[in-house]
Amino acid sequence: MRFFSYTDWDESRHGGDHQTPFERLFDLFQQLLTLSAGNAQEALDWMAQLDRRYGLTTDDYGLGDFIDELKERGYLQDDGPGGTPQITSKTERSLRQKALEDVFGKLRKSGRGQHKTPHAGQGDERQPETRPWAFGDDIAHLDVTATLSNAFRNSGEALHLSEDDFEVYETDHHATTATVLMIDLSHSMILYGEDRITPARTTALALAELITTKYPKDTLDIVAFGTDAWEVPLKELPYLQVGPFYTNTRAGLIRARDLLRRRKNANKQILMLTDGKPSCHYEGPNGLSGRLYRNAFGLDRKVVNKVLDEAAACRREGIPITTFMIARDPLLQQFVHELTETNQGRAYYSSLDDLGDFVFEDFVRNRRKRVR
Question: Of 59, 244, 272, 295, which residue is the least packed, with the fewest Cβ within 10 Å?
Answer without folding.
Answer: 59
